[in-house]
Amino acid sequence: MSFAPxxxxxxxxxxxxDRDLHHVGPPRISFSGTEVFHLGVSVAVLSYAFSIxxxxxxxxxxxxxxxxxxxxxxxxxxASGFVLHELAHKVVAQRYGHWAEFRAHFPGLGISVLxxxxxxxxxxxxxxxxxxxxVTPRENGLISLVGPGTNFVVAVICLPFFAFKVNADYMTxxxxxxAGINALLALFNLLPFxxxxxxxxxxxxxPMYFVALALSIALFVFCVWQNAFP
Length: 230
Prior knowledge:
mainly alpha
């Protein structure tokens, strides 16, 4: 998910030390220490929250202590689904010459752990890539599309490694989990309303949006059919 004000000034809800960090010079891919910290915290918290759901223990308290294989599976799924999605937004935005960095939503991360522990449901509200600059509608559409597009590609790459043989062994289940999570994220982020990527893609190019949505629905249905979700 990304936030890109059209020709607007710096976001007022961004910390003061971020407000004047604009891209200078030729387009380049760069990371600040603040961004690396926010990404690291988000990955750690989401991996832990997801590992609670993947744990096999029936004791609610025991599930709060992540099992090694569950934690590894959760980390791979989060890294491939969440991190690559956000970095795709960032890279394309910076290649267009805009300042773009990920910022975590710490209350949302806390809620993710709480919901996983109490309701055994994955609720992810980790944050978004903040973009500053005069972003055109076309740029905003492409920046938004590349996030779910990355999830779609990751899921498709995993398909040959698990299709028709889910739960045969640990690696097969791992590929299935990664494919399922990425298929879900691709479809979820293409919702055409609110802050989701789909709304920005639809505003830019209707036919492109509906093609992306149809492909994502087909992939998601296939993953459900193959029991790709933990």
